[in-house]
């Protein structure tokens, strides 16, 4: 029986529009150009940061990120960046008796911003804070220590088959793919990827889905 639901962040809870938009502005290219390049590297199964390297070959992404922060183009996160189903969906899960946690490949700053928004969750954690990122097994080991739940009683919800679904399943967790964002749409029905236990289009589907035991 599932007792705990853990959510990825980017394109699961948070729209990435602002994130990529500020990168496009920083690199001096139209936002559509960077958006198209992100789509291209996603389709090739590459790291999405490769889109930045296509614009600025050989760039040190962490150094660029630090320079962007110092110039006032750092990470921002507002309530409008959350998908509309996030607050009601997470609240409904908690009301139904499930523990709700957030853990994704994000910076420490992103963790601070999410916590400041008061998203209804028992904890918010990021890979930068933990010092380990998906798809590494150690990420999911840390996740289970944080939640205090058994793998078989824990559901991981994310949009990326390779970073979310496959490694979570390998760690013994139940899995749910949310069909949104470039990864969720492109890879949802693709052959040769790890199949999730469930696929949804809205977080608000989860309480009834989990209760039904389907």
UniProtKB/TrEMBL annotation:
Keywords: Hydrolase
Pfam family, one: Hydrolase
Hydrolase keyword on record: yes
GO molecular-function term, one example from the UniProt record: hydrolase activity
InterPro entries membership: HAD-like_sf, HAD-SF_hydro_IA, HAD_sf, S-2-haloacid_dehalogenase
PANTHER family noted in UniProt: HYDROLASE, HALOACID DELAHOGENASE-RELATED
Name of this protein: HAD family hydrolase
């Amino acid at each position: 029986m599932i007792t705990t639901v853990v959510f990825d962040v980017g394109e699961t809870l948070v729209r990435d529009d602002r994130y990529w938009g500020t990168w496009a502005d920083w690199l001096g290219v139209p936002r559509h150009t960077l958006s198209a390049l992100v789509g291209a590297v996603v389709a090739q199964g590459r790291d999405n940061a490769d889109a930045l390297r296509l614009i600025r070959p050989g760039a040190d992404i962490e150094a660029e990120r630090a320079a962007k922060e110092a110039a006032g183009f750092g990470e921002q996160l507002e309530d409008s960046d959350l998908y509309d189903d996030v607050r009601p969906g997470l609240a409904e899960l908690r009301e139904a008796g499930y523990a709700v946690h957030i853990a994704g490949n994000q910076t420490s700053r992103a963790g601070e911003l999410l916590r400041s928004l008061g998203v209804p969750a028992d904890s918010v954690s990021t890979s930068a804070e933990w010092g380990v990122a998906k798809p590494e097994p150690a990420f999911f080991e840390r996740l289970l220590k944080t939640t205090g739940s058994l793998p078989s009683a824990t559901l991981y919800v994310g949009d990326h088959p390779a970073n979310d679904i496959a490694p979570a399943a390998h760690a013994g967790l139940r899995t749910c793919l949310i069909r949104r964002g470039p990864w969720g749409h492109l890879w949802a029905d693709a052959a040769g990827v790890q199949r999730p236990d469930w696929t949804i289009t809205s977080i608000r589907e989860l309480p009834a889905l989990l209760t039904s035991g389907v």
